[in-house]
What does this fold into?
Amino acid sequence: MEAHYFIGIKIPAFAAAALEQARSSWGMDRHKRYTAPEDMHLTLLFIGNVPHEEIAQAAEALKEIDAAAFELTMNGISFFGNPGTPRIVYAAVEESEALRKLQANVKEKILKFQMNPDLKPFVPHITLAAKWKGGPPIEPDWQLEPLTFPVDSFAIFRIAPGHKPKYIEEYTYHLKEGV
It folds into this structure.
């Protein structure tokens, strides 16, 4: 049986709560989907539809990644698509060499398998709302106070539509201490 997977970083509860609180203050009502706080994450690599046996092999390979824990800072709100009718609204993440290296290592390990990961350029972000449902264009004036949080692990998530949480950690990898 095949399922959809991605590799990502789960956002800590305090940061997800801050994002949810900020989002609710913006009066957003023009999107079909809003990411629940327990599902907020930063995707390192979307893998897609993969048989369970292959994901288990990839999970073993990811154990070889040797990286130290680090911090990330959310530093604003941005979007994909037209600013007046944004396809996705997200929390932007400040540039981080540690994050770029981790993402590159994950991608390198996964490309050794017969999978078809999404190879679009990496844009670190935390999706807050998706799928514009229509209505007049908006003039976004979304504000987000910078917020820093620790990153001490990453995981392979299975997407479980209709479940809560929607993204289930199948394999978790702890980073070395040393933030």
The first strand starts at residue 2 and ends at 10. The first helix runs from residue 13 to 25. Helices lie at 13-25, 52-62, 97-110. The CA atoms of residues 81 and 87 lie 5 Å apart.
